[in-house]
Amino acid sequence: MSPSDLPLRDGATLAYGAANVGNLHRALSDAEAQAVLAAAWDAGIRSFDTAPHYGLGLSERRLGAFLRDKPREQFTVSTKVGRLLRPNPAGDGGLDLDNSFHVPTDARRVWDFSATGIVASLDDSLERLGLDRVDALYLHDPEKHDLGQALTEALPALEGLRAEGRVDRIGVGSMDADALAAAVRGAALDEVMVAGRYTLLEQPASAEVLPACRERGTTIVAASVFNSGLLASDTPSRDARYEYGGVPDAVWERLERILDVCRTHGVSLPVAALAFVAREPLVTTVVIGGSRPTQLQQNAESWRQVVPEQFWDDLARARLIP
User: Fold this and answer.
1) What's the helix, strand, coil split of the chain in %, to 5?
2) Which residue of 12, 130, 163, 254 could cross-link 278, Cys pair, CB 3.0 to 4.6 Å?
3) What is the dihedral of CA 138, 53, 58, 77, to 10 degrees?
4) In a 3-state reduction of DSSP, which class is residue 49?
5) SS3 state of residue 255
6) What Å distances lie between residue 36 and 24, 119, 281, 289, 295, CA to CA?
7) Alpha helices in the chain, H assignment, sequence order
8) 3-317, what's its fold?
9) What does the domain layout of the chain look like in residue ranges?
């Protein structure tokens, strides 16, 4: 299957977010991880997102190994900065389950938003990936460390790397709408990765992030569009994971109302979840995860499905979407 077999949807392309091949939530063997990446490639996906945080570098290493024999001009890669990986002499042989990754704690994450830390993080990532460049570089979760330093030091460092030609595009990746809006207003970013804050289920990014992006000419990479898997099935479970925890009652009630509209129009919930974010003109890329080849195949098929306009009209009339 060629990239042309996976068409743009409303101007947006589909990408694979490689946290799962860093053993997010469950361990994958190297062979299983490579099978997942191969399924993404075979489905026509040519954009891949990773981060040092994902499996303490395992995601970057596995993605780099997979891409090693692929023509460089046929794919794009984004990774993230802000957390350096350093040896962990205090590691007790356990797993990094506090961060939901099934990997040994033989390394530790060290926050570093300084200019030297940003450059060092990129250099380390390139070594793990086996690449001489990445296409996009994001500051990862600035609100979890020091948003002030992010605005005054980290983002100018990213601007410097772009000016030097070391990366094509720079941005911020976060699940915090306030941090994303502040970053867009505080730096000349090409794009922001909005994780779980603009989905079919909820759109807190609509209040500040989207207007700031329109004003500044910043585009959006939409990630976590299934809300931690809650929207990934036509029969979501009340016990499903949501934002790394349980599903609040208000969220579940809203989901049930969306499902009623889906059933009325015969629209699959995962199809609607993908199509909704792609409809926003600011969104250029929609990132999906997956730890099994079948999930990638199903999502690629969902990406191709057509959703009737009346479906969106009914959701809007019910005040379930803007």
Assistant:
1) 45, 20, 35
2) 12
3) -10
4) strand
5) helix
6) 13, 30, 29, 10, 9
7) 30-42, 58-67, 115-129, 147-149, 155-163, 177-186, 205-216, 249-265, 269-279, 293-304, 309-317
8) TIM Barrel (3.20.20)
9) 3-317
Token look-up 């996906």 returns: 45
Q: Hey, which residues are catalytic here?
A: 54
pLDDT, average across residues 220-246: 89
- Across 101-106, average pLDDT: 96
Q: Which long-range contacts (CB under 8 A, 24 or more apart) does 292-296 make?
A: 292/36, 293/35, 293/36, 293/38, 293/39, 294/39, 295/232, 296/16, 296/36, 296/39, 296/40, 296/43, 296/45
- Count, residues in the chain: 322
Query: Of 129, 91, 126, 128, which is closest to residue 108 (Cα–Cα)?
Result: 91
The pTM score is 0.95
Q: What is the mean pLDDT of residues 98-116?
A: 97
β-bridge mates for residue 221, sequence order: 193, 285
**Residue 62 near residue 50 (C-beta atoms within 8 A):** no
Among candidates 302, 303, 286, which has minimal Cα distance to 16? 286
Instruction: Say which amino acid occupies 136.
Output: A
> Which token pair is 286?
């929609």
H or E segment at 167? strand 167-174
d(CA 101, CA 249): 27
pLDDT, residue 3, reads 42
Q: What's the rounded Cα separation, in Å, for the pair 219 and 78?
A: 15
Q: Which amino acid makes up residue 121?
A: S
